[in-house]
Amino acid sequence: MNVLKGRQYSNGGFGYWTHRNDSYADPYMSVHVAHCLAVVMDKKVLDVNANMLSNALKYVENIESEIDQLSYSKYWSEKTRCSLMSYALYVRAKHHRNVAEEASKLFKRSGFDKLSLEALGWLLVALSSGENSNKHQTIEIIYKHLKGKVSETGETANFITSYESTLCTKLCKGLQAHKVKGAWKSTQENCFVLIALDKYFHMKEKDIPEFVANIWLDNDYCGQHEYK
After folding, report:
1. CA-atom Rg of the chain in angstroms
2. Which end of the chain has less Cβ packing within 10 Å, N or C?
3. Which domain of life is it from (predicted)?
């Protein structure tokens, strides 16, 4: 954490490597670090420096203006901008900020054309962080859109609608089926997949197993194993 704090820029953001005078904080990396801090705090893994956290959240809160200050951001598509802003709202929601109204406004401004599937998922979480006048209507619109995008087989599906849906279990099977040598395509994919699987585990398998399994082969008793 001390190394990370030393790499923070004065505006609260972070870069891909070290804090250099001839470089600038990267918006995606800055939001990603703020996301990491939320996970660390939630899991109570390490103590997070309050000043570093405050500055990081300030950067994330001002993500659009931070993007506009970069000379190369003029080459970014609107989809890239809106998706990054959606990620920022998601991270702020993970830090227990009420960003539902901002999420609703961003969705109205961007629509489906300017939001990736990941961005829609981030917005769903952001919309659930508080109340606004048309929160539930917006969530239903996004859900309906996502349901139309699901690629489903007998056992797997590409993404989730809700934790109560059978698609959730299929999604988890699909994610695990796409591992190569125990991992996914990148460190960021590993991060998001593991967070999703951890969430699924605690939602669907929260009960601690405590039972005895008896094994039979026809009429012959083969043994038992106790699970605790």
Report:
1. 21
2. C
3. Eukaryota
